[in-house]
What does this fold into?
Amino acid sequence: MKLLRLIAITAIILVTSTGIKAQTTTTPSPDTVSVTKDCPIVGQWQYEGGGDYIYHFNADRTGKYEIGSPQPLLFTYEIKGDKLYILFKDNTGPTELGWRIEGNKLIIVDSFGSEVVYIKK
It folds into this structure.
């Protein structure tokens, strides 16, 4: 079941990053976001089910998502409360995801309410 959730979120990300129309939202203004090197999302997060699914969130609000292919998906991101807005390179609008951190786990919630867990590396 967890693998199906990961596949669903990855599919949403791939659809969004390839420019195919997907549900998007307006990016929050930069003054509503405070991301520093001390922000808990900054770092590398690997899918708890294993594999090559790794998010890299940098303090400068850039990142990449490794999905086991030679070319990672590059993105910028913003945070507003419990919402994470990821804008993949060459896409016109961000993907909105719920998020929270519990200990060393990053939990990402897709638009269907499914949770995918990543472990801090």
